[in-house]
Design goal:
4 helices, three-stranded antiparallel beta sheet, flat, 173 residues, single chain, Ybab, Chain: A
């Protein structure tokens, strides 16, 4: 028969190990940052482990550019940083969880499904757009379509026995 004190001691050891792993994971994720820069170096963004923007630096040369163009470029650089979060988390947590563990696969799959893919023509990890390829920009027909016209609501039938206290009818008849 097994000694109850030995069972309790083993259980406490497993709990302590799980707590150490949990603390290591929490610390790794709290400190995880992914930074990307635009090709011209004028836009630098940093996102955290959840892909949320935590830092944005804009160069002075952007003052001479159109605001919409700058906004689109910022979004592309943020999207590029977000697309690298799952890989960064995998690299940071592999020593703790094991690179091929079920927990690691689950976490990375969740992160990849939550983050956007890298923008087209973006060189991942390469510091921005480049390689001599043309950058994507807005086109005339990229504007969103106009909103549909409002639909008329059909009239509601009047119920003679209803006093109107809890209906959509007005109180004046």
């Amino acid at each position: 028969m097994t000694d109850p004190d030995q069972i309790l001691s083993q259980y406490e050891g497993k709990l302590a190990e799980a707590q150490r792993k949990s603390d290591a994971i929490r610390e790794s994720l709290a400190n995880l940052r992914v930074t990307e820069r635009s090709a011209d170096g004028q836009i630098t963004v940093t996102v955290n482990d959840a892909g949320n923007l935590v830092d944005l630096k804009l160069g002075n040369a952007l003052q001479r550019k159109d605001g919409d163009t700058v906004g689109q470029e910022v979004l592309r650089v943020v999207q590029a940083a977000q697309s690298r979060v799952a890989t960064a988390v995998q690299e940071a947590l592999s020593p703790v969880l094991g690179g091929d563990s079920e927990a690691m696969h689950f976490m990375v799959d969740k992160l990849r499904s939550a983050q956007p893919p890298p923008p087209p023509q973006y060189v991942a990890g390469g510091g921005g757009y480049g390689s001599g390829q043309p950058r994507l920009g807005s086109l005339e027909d990229d504007a969103p379509p106009p909103p549909p016209p409002p639909r008329a609501r059909p009239p509601r039938p009047h119920r003679g026995d209803d006093d109107g206290d809890f209906s959509d009818e007005g109180f004046l008849r």
